[in-house]
């Protein structure tokens, strides 16, 4: 049975053609991309050694070998980090029962006190642990504002994106948002292979959403820490917001996600209405 490492390496070989890396192609190809022997030659390892890597026998792989393979496959920084995570899973532990997550009191106070910004504290699985009122109105006004307080009711941003029709309508560029979300989740899954809740979330979304299943099978990885998002909000209309995601300075792997608008822009005016709690505004 092929491992996640094998699937990832095969997907990255499939992106490259011999001519892309200065090789001459010989003979018909049954599948697209570089052959194993071509990749092994580029990376400077034996065909047997590389084949064992794709089969998941990577415990003894050195940093030098992994970096050589990453260079041969033309991986970016996020993909290279993901390769390392897959090649060195954490002691092959069995997935553990999830522990209930909770935001620290100080983190919760920080989030709820922020104004002029939509702020969300979330765990590595994208469960919302706390949000301020602006983030609640922006992302999930159809949820109870206190839903993050309990593990039984708290929203999960990835699940909402694929399974909640209100959330799907919220994003103008839903396909791009979906690609980002799955690529980010793939990176997290590589870092935490023993998280059973995360595995259950991935399984649920793969079963219930054909779009998620298709994107998950691409093995794309991306650390989505900043950028722009376009919203079509049901109350205040179109918003173009910048976002920043930062890690809390502890060992929890919790993140702070913040949305802001460019000053003096139409989005800033609409965002200001959300920030001040306007209830009924036409776009």
Number of helices: 13
User: Which residue ranges are poorly predicted, with pLDDT under 50 across at least 5 consecutive positions?
Assistant: 279-283
- Overall geometry: elongated
Q: Order of helices and strands, N to C?
A: HHHHHHEEHHHHHHEEEH
Pairing-aware structural class of the strands and helices? Answer: alpha+beta
Strand order within the widest sheet? 2-1-5-4-3
Helix content: 40-55%
Mean pLDDT: 85
Distance between the termini: 53 Å
CA radius of gyration is 22 Å
User: How does the major sheet shape up?
Assistant: 5 strands, antiparallel
Strand content: 5-15%
Number of strands: 5
Structure description:
The protein has 283 residues and is α+β, with helices and mostly antiparallel strands. It is 44% helix and 12% strand. It contains 13 helices and 5 strands. Strands 2-1-5-4-3 form a 5-stranded antiparallel sheet. α2 crosses α4 (63-72). The model is unreliable at 279-283 (pLDDT under 50).
Give a short synopsis of this structure.
The chain has 283 residues and is α+β, with helices and mostly antiparallel strands. The protein has helices at 4-13, 36-43, 47-54, 63-72, 77-87, 105-113, 133-140, 157-163, 165-170, 174-191, 196-208, 210-216, 266-275, and strands at residues 118-122, 128-131, 226-233, 237-247, 255-261.
Descriptive labels:
alpha+beta, 283 residues, five-stranded antiparallel sheet, 44% helix, single chain, disordered C terminus, elongated
